[in-house]
Amino acid sequence: MSGTAVTGQVHNPYAMGYSAGGSSSGSGRLVATGSVDLAFGCDQGGSIRIPASSCGIVGLKPTWGLVPYTGILSLDATIDHAGPMTKNVRDCALFLEAIAGPDGWDDRQPPFGLEGDKLKFVAPVDALISKEPSKMLEDVKIGVLSEGFEVPGQDPNVIKSVKSAIEKFRSLGATVAPVSIPLHKEAPLLWTCALPLSGGRQSLLGDMDGRKLLYLTDRAELVGPKLTQAQFDALGPGASNMYMGYLWIQEKYGAKVQGKAMNLLKATSDAYDRALQEFDVLVMPTLPYPPPRLPDPESNEGPLNFLTRTIGLVANTCPFNNSGHPALSLPIGFVPAREDPTIKLPTAVQIVGRKYADVDCLKVAAAWEKVFDWKTLQREQ
Fold it and tell me: Is the dihedral of CA 293, 297, 299, 300 positive or negative?
Protein backbone atom coordinates (compact mmCIF):
# COMPACT_ATOMS: atom_id res chain seq x y z
CA MET A 1 0.00 0.00 0.00
CA SER A 2 2.86 2.37 -0.96
CA GLY A 3 4.44 2.48 2.49
CA THR A 4 7.23 -0.08 2.12
CA ALA A 5 9.18 0.94 -1.00
CA VAL A 6 12.96 0.72 -0.63
CA THR A 7 13.29 4.31 -1.88
CA GLY A 8 10.70 5.63 0.57
CA GLN A 9 6.96 6.02 0.85
CA VAL A 10 4.92 6.71 -2.29
CA HIS A 11 2.47 9.48 -1.45
CA ASN A 12 -0.96 9.96 -2.96
CA PRO A 13 -0.80 12.57 -5.76
CA TYR A 14 -3.71 14.43 -4.16
CA ALA A 15 -2.52 14.41 -0.54
CA MET A 16 0.91 13.94 0.99
CA GLY A 17 0.88 11.43 3.80
CA TYR A 18 -1.84 9.28 2.24
CA SER A 19 -1.46 6.00 0.38
CA ALA A 20 -1.12 5.86 -3.40
CA GLY A 21 -2.43 2.30 -3.31
CA GLY A 22 -0.44 -0.78 -4.12
CA SER A 23 1.37 -2.70 -5.01
CA SER A 24 1.87 -0.78 -8.30
CA SER A 25 2.11 2.46 -6.31
CA GLY A 26 4.81 4.10 -8.38
CA SER A 27 2.99 3.39 -11.61
CA GLY A 28 -0.17 4.98 -10.26
CA ARG A 29 1.51 8.15 -9.00
CA LEU A 30 3.70 8.61 -12.09
CA VAL A 31 0.70 8.48 -14.41
CA ALA A 32 -1.44 10.69 -12.17
CA THR A 33 1.22 13.41 -11.93
CA GLY A 34 1.94 13.34 -15.68
CA SER A 35 5.50 12.11 -15.19
CA VAL A 36 4.73 9.32 -17.66
CA ASP A 37 1.92 8.77 -20.14
CA LEU A 38 1.56 5.03 -19.59
CA ALA A 39 2.62 2.55 -16.95
CA PHE A 40 2.61 -1.19 -16.51
CA GLY A 41 1.06 -2.79 -13.44
CA CYS A 42 0.98 -6.31 -12.03
CA ASP A 43 -2.14 -7.53 -10.24
CA GLN A 44 -2.62 -10.63 -8.08
CA GLY A 45 -5.29 -9.22 -5.78
CA GLY A 46 -5.91 -5.69 -6.98
CA SER A 47 -2.46 -4.18 -7.50
CA ILE A 48 -3.41 -2.42 -10.74
CA ARG A 49 -6.90 -1.34 -9.68
CA ILE A 50 -6.10 -0.28 -6.11
CA PRO A 51 -3.51 2.37 -7.09
CA ALA A 52 -5.65 3.35 -10.09
CA SER A 53 -8.58 4.08 -7.77
CA SER A 54 -6.35 5.75 -5.18
CA CYS A 55 -4.57 7.99 -7.70
CA GLY A 56 -7.50 8.88 -9.97
CA ILE A 57 -6.39 7.06 -13.13
CA VAL A 58 -7.66 4.20 -15.30
CA GLY A 59 -6.33 0.73 -14.52
CA LEU A 60 -7.26 -2.51 -16.27
CA LYS A 61 -6.62 -6.00 -14.98
CA PRO A 62 -7.10 -7.85 -18.26
CA THR A 63 -8.55 -11.30 -18.72
CA TRP A 64 -6.16 -13.86 -17.25
CA GLY A 65 -3.64 -14.75 -19.95
CA LEU A 66 -4.57 -11.98 -22.40
CA VAL A 67 -1.33 -10.10 -21.68
CA PRO A 68 1.81 -12.27 -21.32
CA TYR A 69 3.52 -12.26 -17.94
CA THR A 70 6.87 -13.14 -19.48
CA GLY A 71 9.86 -11.49 -17.81
CA ILE A 72 7.94 -10.62 -14.64
CA LEU A 73 8.53 -12.48 -11.40
CA SER A 74 5.49 -14.64 -10.69
CA LEU A 75 3.71 -14.70 -7.36
CA ASP A 76 1.15 -17.35 -8.33
CA ALA A 77 0.54 -18.16 -11.97
CA THR A 78 -3.16 -18.81 -11.38
CA ILE A 79 -3.74 -15.17 -10.39
CA ASP A 80 -0.86 -13.31 -12.09
CA HIS A 81 -2.12 -10.49 -14.34
CA ALA A 82 -0.23 -7.67 -16.07
CA GLY A 83 -1.97 -4.68 -17.58
CA PRO A 84 -2.14 -0.97 -18.44
CA MET A 85 -2.42 2.03 -16.13
CA THR A 86 -3.22 5.27 -17.95
CA LYS A 87 -4.70 8.77 -17.68
CA ASN A 88 -7.78 7.95 -19.73
CA VAL A 89 -9.68 5.05 -21.27
CA ARG A 90 -8.51 5.52 -24.86
CA ASP A 91 -4.87 5.40 -23.77
CA CYS A 92 -5.74 2.23 -21.88
CA ALA A 93 -7.20 0.68 -25.04
CA LEU A 94 -4.17 1.78 -27.06
CA PHE A 95 -1.71 0.34 -24.54
CA LEU A 96 -3.67 -2.91 -24.25
CA GLU A 97 -3.69 -3.34 -28.03
CA ALA A 98 0.10 -3.01 -28.00
CA ILE A 99 0.74 -5.59 -25.27
CA ALA A 100 -2.06 -8.16 -25.62
CA GLY A 101 -1.73 -11.45 -27.44
CA PRO A 102 0.40 -14.60 -27.36
CA ASP A 103 4.17 -14.34 -27.06
CA GLY A 104 5.06 -18.03 -27.38
CA TRP A 105 6.40 -18.25 -23.84
CA ASP A 106 3.66 -17.78 -21.26
CA ASP A 107 1.58 -20.89 -20.59
CA ARG A 108 -1.11 -18.77 -18.93
CA GLN A 109 -2.19 -17.93 -22.48
CA PRO A 110 -4.47 -20.19 -24.54
CA PRO A 111 -2.71 -22.07 -27.36
CA PHE A 112 -5.05 -20.60 -29.99
CA GLY A 113 -7.87 -18.07 -30.41
CA LEU A 114 -6.07 -14.88 -29.31
CA GLU A 115 -6.02 -13.20 -32.68
CA GLY A 116 -7.89 -10.88 -35.04
CA ASP A 117 -10.70 -8.79 -33.59
CA LYS A 118 -10.11 -10.19 -30.10
CA LEU A 119 -6.96 -8.07 -29.99
CA LYS A 120 -8.53 -4.88 -31.36
CA PHE A 121 -9.49 -2.38 -28.68
CA VAL A 122 -8.98 1.15 -30.01
CA ALA A 123 -11.31 1.09 -33.03
CA PRO A 124 -14.33 -0.20 -31.05
CA VAL A 125 -13.80 2.48 -28.41
CA ASP A 126 -13.47 5.23 -31.03
CA ALA A 127 -16.59 4.04 -32.84
CA LEU A 128 -18.62 4.05 -29.65
CA ILE A 129 -17.65 7.50 -28.38
CA SER A 130 -18.43 9.02 -31.80
CA LYS A 131 -22.15 8.33 -31.20
CA GLU A 132 -24.68 10.64 -29.62
CA PRO A 133 -24.26 10.38 -25.83
CA SER A 134 -27.77 9.05 -25.26
CA LYS A 135 -27.15 6.22 -27.73
CA MET A 136 -23.63 5.17 -26.70
CA LEU A 137 -24.79 2.34 -24.46
CA GLU A 138 -28.30 1.74 -25.78
CA ASP A 139 -27.74 -2.01 -26.22
CA VAL A 140 -25.77 -2.50 -23.00
CA LYS A 141 -27.11 -4.16 -19.83
CA ILE A 142 -25.24 -3.23 -16.66
CA GLY A 143 -25.60 -5.36 -13.54
CA VAL A 144 -25.05 -3.60 -10.21
CA LEU A 145 -23.51 -6.25 -7.95
CA SER A 146 -25.36 -6.04 -4.63
CA GLU A 147 -22.67 -7.83 -2.63
CA GLY A 148 -20.09 -5.34 -3.91
CA PHE A 149 -21.83 -2.71 -1.78
CA GLU A 150 -21.88 -4.87 1.37
CA VAL A 151 -18.21 -4.88 2.35
CA PRO A 152 -17.47 -4.59 6.09
CA GLY A 153 -15.97 -1.21 6.94
CA GLN A 154 -17.08 0.45 3.72
CA ASP A 155 -17.23 4.23 3.65
CA PRO A 156 -20.71 5.73 3.07
CA ASN A 157 -19.24 8.55 0.97
CA VAL A 158 -17.68 6.02 -1.41
CA ILE A 159 -20.97 4.14 -1.71
CA LYS A 160 -22.87 7.37 -2.42
CA SER A 161 -20.35 8.51 -5.04
CA VAL A 162 -20.27 5.17 -6.84
CA LYS A 163 -24.06 4.80 -6.88
CA SER A 164 -24.36 8.31 -8.32
CA ALA A 165 -21.84 7.45 -11.05
CA ILE A 166 -23.68 4.23 -11.91
CA GLU A 167 -26.98 6.10 -12.29
CA LYS A 168 -25.34 8.25 -14.96
CA PHE A 169 -25.02 5.18 -17.19
CA ARG A 170 -28.79 5.40 -17.72
CA SER A 171 -28.42 8.75 -19.47
CA LEU A 172 -26.03 7.04 -21.90
CA GLY A 173 -28.76 4.60 -22.92
CA ALA A 174 -27.76 1.64 -20.75
CA THR A 175 -30.16 -0.63 -18.91
CA VAL A 176 -29.09 -0.74 -15.26
CA ALA A 177 -30.41 -3.37 -12.84
CA PRO A 178 -29.31 -5.05 -9.60
CA VAL A 179 -27.83 -8.54 -9.55
CA SER A 180 -26.91 -10.76 -6.60
CA ILE A 181 -23.99 -13.20 -6.52
CA PRO A 182 -23.75 -14.48 -2.91
CA LEU A 183 -20.45 -16.28 -3.56
CA HIS A 184 -18.82 -12.88 -4.15
CA LYS A 185 -18.63 -12.48 -0.37
CA GLU A 186 -16.81 -15.81 -0.01
CA ALA A 187 -14.24 -15.17 -2.76
CA PRO A 188 -11.82 -13.02 -0.67
CA LEU A 189 -11.63 -15.73 1.99
CA LEU A 190 -10.86 -18.35 -0.66
CA TRP A 191 -8.21 -16.06 -2.16
CA THR A 192 -6.72 -15.62 1.31
CA CYS A 193 -6.52 -19.41 1.76
CA ALA A 194 -5.11 -20.22 -1.67
CA LEU A 195 -2.55 -17.41 -2.12
CA PRO A 196 -0.28 -18.07 0.90
CA LEU A 197 -0.08 -21.76 0.06
CA SER A 198 0.92 -21.28 -3.56
CA GLY A 199 2.72 -17.93 -3.63
CA GLY A 200 4.16 -18.34 -0.15
CA ARG A 201 5.51 -21.81 -0.80
CA GLN A 202 7.07 -20.83 -4.14
CA SER A 203 8.81 -17.76 -2.75
CA LEU A 204 9.77 -19.25 0.59
CA LEU A 205 11.45 -22.28 -0.94
CA GLY A 206 12.82 -20.55 -4.05
CA ASP A 207 10.90 -22.94 -6.31
CA MET A 208 10.58 -22.17 -10.02
CA ASP A 209 9.16 -25.41 -11.32
CA GLY A 210 5.90 -26.66 -12.74
CA ARG A 211 5.37 -24.05 -15.47
CA LYS A 212 6.11 -23.74 -19.18
CA LEU A 213 7.47 -20.20 -19.33
CA LEU A 214 10.61 -18.08 -19.41
CA TYR A 215 12.35 -18.68 -16.09
CA LEU A 216 14.14 -15.75 -14.44
CA THR A 217 17.30 -17.57 -13.47
CA ASP A 218 19.16 -14.41 -12.43
CA ARG A 219 16.43 -13.64 -9.90
CA ALA A 220 16.56 -17.21 -8.58
CA GLU A 221 20.32 -16.93 -8.08
CA LEU A 222 19.89 -13.61 -6.28
CA VAL A 223 17.28 -14.96 -3.88
CA GLY A 224 19.06 -18.26 -3.30
CA PRO A 225 17.62 -21.72 -2.76
CA LYS A 226 15.24 -20.53 -0.05
CA LEU A 227 14.23 -17.43 1.88
CA THR A 228 16.75 -16.52 4.57
CA GLN A 229 16.07 -14.92 7.93
CA ALA A 230 17.78 -11.71 6.80
CA GLN A 231 15.58 -11.53 3.70
CA PHE A 232 12.47 -12.18 5.78
CA ASP A 233 13.38 -9.43 8.24
CA ALA A 234 13.70 -6.95 5.34
CA LEU A 235 10.20 -7.68 4.01
CA GLY A 236 7.21 -5.41 4.30
CA PRO A 237 4.27 -6.48 6.49
CA GLY A 238 2.17 -7.74 3.58
CA ALA A 239 4.81 -10.12 2.27
CA SER A 240 5.85 -11.42 5.69
CA ASN A 241 2.18 -11.95 6.54
CA MET A 242 1.83 -14.13 3.42
CA TYR A 243 4.80 -16.28 4.38
CA MET A 244 3.61 -16.74 7.94
CA GLY A 245 0.14 -17.52 6.65
CA TYR A 246 1.56 -20.24 4.42
CA LEU A 247 3.51 -21.83 7.27
CA TRP A 248 0.57 -21.68 9.66
CA ILE A 249 -2.00 -23.08 7.21
CA GLN A 250 0.40 -25.78 6.04
CA GLU A 251 1.16 -26.87 9.60
CA LYS A 252 -2.43 -26.78 10.83
CA TYR A 253 -4.36 -28.07 7.81
CA GLY A 254 -1.93 -29.41 5.23
CA ALA A 255 -2.27 -29.28 1.46
CA LYS A 256 -5.98 -30.12 1.37
CA VAL A 257 -6.91 -26.50 2.14
CA GLN A 258 -5.48 -25.22 -1.12
CA GLY A 259 -7.24 -27.92 -3.13
CA LYS A 260 -10.56 -27.21 -1.46
CA ALA A 261 -10.15 -23.45 -1.95
CA MET A 262 -9.29 -23.87 -5.64
CA ASN A 263 -12.33 -26.09 -6.21
CA LEU A 264 -14.60 -23.54 -4.55
CA LEU A 265 -13.04 -20.75 -6.60
CA LYS A 266 -14.22 -22.55 -9.73
CA ALA A 267 -17.77 -22.34 -8.41
CA THR A 268 -17.29 -18.60 -7.81
CA SER A 269 -16.02 -18.07 -11.35
CA ASP A 270 -19.00 -20.00 -12.72
CA ALA A 271 -21.35 -17.76 -10.73
CA TYR A 272 -19.88 -14.65 -12.36
CA ASP A 273 -20.16 -16.32 -15.77
CA ARG A 274 -23.87 -16.99 -15.19
CA ALA A 275 -24.50 -13.37 -14.23
CA LEU A 276 -22.61 -12.20 -17.31
CA GLN A 277 -24.92 -14.24 -19.51
CA GLU A 278 -27.66 -11.80 -18.48
CA PHE A 279 -25.54 -8.64 -18.25
CA ASP A 280 -22.77 -7.25 -20.44
CA VAL A 281 -20.81 -5.96 -17.46
CA LEU A 282 -21.02 -5.89 -13.68
CA VAL A 283 -20.26 -2.75 -11.65
CA MET A 284 -19.37 -2.06 -8.02
CA PRO A 285 -16.95 0.14 -6.03
CA THR A 286 -13.32 -0.61 -6.80
CA LEU A 287 -12.40 0.01 -3.16
CA PRO A 288 -14.70 0.15 -0.13
CA TYR A 289 -13.09 3.27 1.33
CA PRO A 290 -10.68 6.09 0.37
CA PRO A 291 -6.89 5.68 0.58
CA PRO A 292 -5.71 5.44 4.19
CA ARG A 293 -3.10 7.60 5.83
CA LEU A 294 0.44 6.25 5.53
CA PRO A 295 2.32 5.25 8.68
CA ASP A 296 4.51 7.97 10.12
CA PRO A 297 8.08 6.75 9.48
CA GLU A 298 9.23 8.56 12.64
CA SER A 299 6.65 6.90 14.88
CA ASN A 300 6.76 3.54 16.60
CA GLU A 301 3.62 2.40 14.83
CA GLY A 302 3.88 -1.30 14.11
CA PRO A 303 2.91 -2.97 10.83
CA LEU A 304 -0.24 -4.44 12.37
CA ASN A 305 -1.75 -0.98 12.83
CA PHE A 306 -1.39 -0.14 9.14
CA LEU A 307 -2.62 -3.56 8.04
CA THR A 308 -5.67 -3.08 10.26
CA ARG A 309 -6.53 0.10 8.34
CA THR A 310 -6.56 -1.88 5.08
CA ILE A 311 -8.84 -4.75 6.14
CA GLY A 312 -11.41 -5.40 3.43
CA LEU A 313 -9.46 -3.40 0.85
CA VAL A 314 -9.37 -6.22 -1.74
CA ALA A 315 -12.92 -7.48 -1.16
CA ASN A 316 -14.07 -6.34 -4.63
CA THR A 317 -10.77 -6.74 -6.47
CA CYS A 318 -9.27 -10.13 -5.55
CA PRO A 319 -12.36 -12.16 -6.61
CA PHE A 320 -11.58 -11.37 -10.24
CA ASN A 321 -7.97 -12.46 -9.90
CA ASN A 322 -9.39 -15.78 -8.81
CA SER A 323 -11.90 -15.92 -11.67
CA GLY A 324 -9.79 -14.32 -14.42
CA HIS A 325 -12.49 -11.90 -15.60
CA PRO A 326 -11.35 -8.49 -16.92
CA ALA A 327 -11.85 -5.69 -14.39
CA LEU A 328 -11.32 -1.97 -15.03
CA SER A 329 -11.14 0.81 -12.44
CA LEU A 330 -12.56 4.15 -13.63
CA PRO A 331 -12.23 7.34 -11.52
CA ILE A 332 -15.64 8.90 -10.81
CA GLY A 333 -15.11 11.55 -8.13
CA PHE A 334 -13.57 12.54 -4.83
CA VAL A 335 -14.55 11.62 -1.27
CA PRO A 336 -13.35 12.92 2.10
CA ALA A 337 -10.44 11.11 3.74
CA ARG A 338 -11.53 9.13 6.76
CA GLU A 339 -8.84 10.67 8.96
CA ASP A 340 -9.43 14.28 7.82
CA PRO A 341 -12.65 15.22 5.96
CA THR A 342 -11.07 18.42 4.62
CA ILE A 343 -8.82 16.26 2.42
CA LYS A 344 -10.46 14.92 -0.73
CA LEU A 345 -9.19 11.72 -2.37
CA PRO A 346 -10.20 9.89 -5.57
CA THR A 347 -12.64 7.01 -5.69
CA ALA A 348 -13.65 4.74 -8.55
CA VAL A 349 -16.15 2.30 -10.01
CA GLN A 350 -15.01 -1.16 -11.08
CA ILE A 351 -16.36 -2.53 -14.37
CA VAL A 352 -16.14 -6.31 -14.84
CA GLY A 353 -16.74 -8.08 -18.16
CA ARG A 354 -16.85 -11.51 -19.72
CA LYS A 355 -13.57 -13.34 -20.20
CA TYR A 356 -11.74 -12.08 -23.31
CA ALA A 357 -14.37 -9.34 -23.68
CA ASP A 358 -12.08 -6.69 -22.21
CA VAL A 359 -13.28 -4.37 -24.95
CA ASP A 360 -16.72 -4.25 -23.28
CA CYS A 361 -15.16 -2.87 -20.08
CA LEU A 362 -13.28 -0.29 -22.13
CA LYS A 363 -16.36 0.77 -24.10
CA VAL A 364 -18.57 1.20 -21.04
CA ALA A 365 -15.84 3.18 -19.28
CA ALA A 366 -15.11 5.29 -22.36
CA ALA A 367 -18.76 6.28 -22.73
CA TRP A 368 -18.96 7.49 -19.13
CA GLU A 369 -15.62 9.29 -19.37
CA LYS A 370 -16.59 10.98 -22.66
CA VAL A 371 -19.62 12.67 -21.11
CA PHE A 372 -18.69 13.16 -17.46
CA ASP A 373 -15.57 14.82 -16.02
CA TRP A 374 -14.97 13.18 -12.66
CA LYS A 375 -13.04 16.19 -11.36
CA THR A 376 -15.80 18.60 -12.38
CA LEU A 377 -18.39 16.38 -10.70
CA GLN A 378 -16.48 16.82 -7.45
CA ARG A 379 -16.77 20.60 -7.69
CA GLU A 380 -20.50 20.33 -8.36
CA GLN A 381 -21.22 18.15 -5.31
Answer: positive
Q: How many distinct structural domains can be found in the chain?
A: 1
Backbone phi, then psi, for 158, in 5-degree steps? -65, -45
Residue 180 lies in a domain: yes
Q: Does residue 1 belong to any structural domain of this protein?
A: no
- Encode pLDDT of 309-355 as tens digits: 778 899 999 999 999 999 999 999 999 999 999 999 999 999 999 99
3-state secondary structure labels for all residues of 189-258: HHHHHHHHHHHHHHHHHCCCCCCCCCCCHHHHHHHCCCCCHHHHHCCCHHHHHHHHHHHHHHHHCCCHHH
The length of the chain is 381
Distance between CA atoms of 108 and 66, rounded to whole angstroms?
8
Sheet holding 344-353, edge to edge: 38-43, 81-86, 58-61, 327-336, 344-353, 281-285, 141-145, 175-179
